[in-house]
Specification:
This protein is an alpha+beta fold. The protein contains 7 helices and 6 strands. The protein has a domain of 119 residues: Alpha-Beta Plaits (2-Layer Sandwich), CATH 3.30.70. Strands 4-1-6 form a 3-stranded mixed sheet. A hairpin with a 5-residue loop joins strand 2 and strand 3. The N and C termini lie far apart (109 Å). The protein binds iron/sulfur cluster (SF4) (2 copies). One iron/sulfur cluster binds next to helix 2. One iron/sulfur cluster binds next to helix 3.
């Protein structure tokens, strides 16, 4: 090898990137400075920061059933869940408390992967800095709630696929229930006892 070839190759890479910065956008390999916060680039769909809890239509319809799986799977154990109960003390399929300590969360996305109910997803939002470290970064259930419309807006590919799967499962469930009712009504009735 000729002495200095590596340096020339490196300089060519630099030159290529320098020239590309004039002709390509930031997502096509170009490099330029964005004057944040006045300007902000759109995040890629799979960009992830902290998790949020998803609800359908209204915040009362949150999908989380307080199964605790995400809390168990979370590597730094920063999720804390307490199940809700009704007035008679019967357990409900929803959390009374759902806290995430964002000072501990490491943005791994394992909670999203582990949730069997499509209830927790990684958010794009990152402008959450504040002066109060102890309270501002401990997010409670109501702080974490975001709608399915919001999810569709930030991650249309994933949200669309999940919505389609859930719709299909719901239709199958309805068809099975209708089939069961039909089978019950068409069953031959037992003969009345002879007197
Ligand atoms: S977010 Fe998902 S995994 Fe976590 S408690 Fe709720 S339903 Fe279970
Ligand atoms: S993103 Fe990772 S660290 Fe953060 S709450 Fe989810 S599982 Fe825990």
């Amino acid at each position: 090898m000729i002495f200095g070839t590596g340096i020339i190759k490196g300089m060519l890479v630099t030159l290529k990137a320098f020239l590309a910065s004039y002709f390509k956008g930031p997502h096509e390999g170009g490099i330029f400075t964005v004057e944040y916060p006045e300007k902000r680039l759109a995040e890629k769909e799979r960009f992830r920061n902290f998790p949020f809890l998803l609800y359908d239509q209204t915040p009362e319809n949150l999908r989380c059933v307080a199964c605790d799986i995400c809390a168990k799977e979370c590597p730094p154990k920063c999720i804390y869940i307490v199940r809700d109960f009704d007035k008679e003390g019967r357990p409900l399929k929803r959390p009374a408390i759902f806290d995430i300590d964002f000072t501990v969360c490491m943005n791994c996305g394992i909670c999203e992967e582990a949730c069997p109910f499509d209830a927790i997803f990684m958010d794009h939002e990152f402008e959450i800095a504040g002066p109060d470290r102890q309270n501002k970064m401990l997010y409670h259930r109501d702080d974490l709630l975001k709608s399915n419309e919001y999810f569709n807006k930030i991650r249309p590919t994933d949200a669309g696929a999940i919505d389609a799967r859930r719709r299909e499962a719901e239709e199958k469930k309805k068809a099975a229930a209708a089939q069961a009712v039909k089978a019950k009504t068409t069953q031959p009735q037992p003969e009345p006892p002879k007197t």
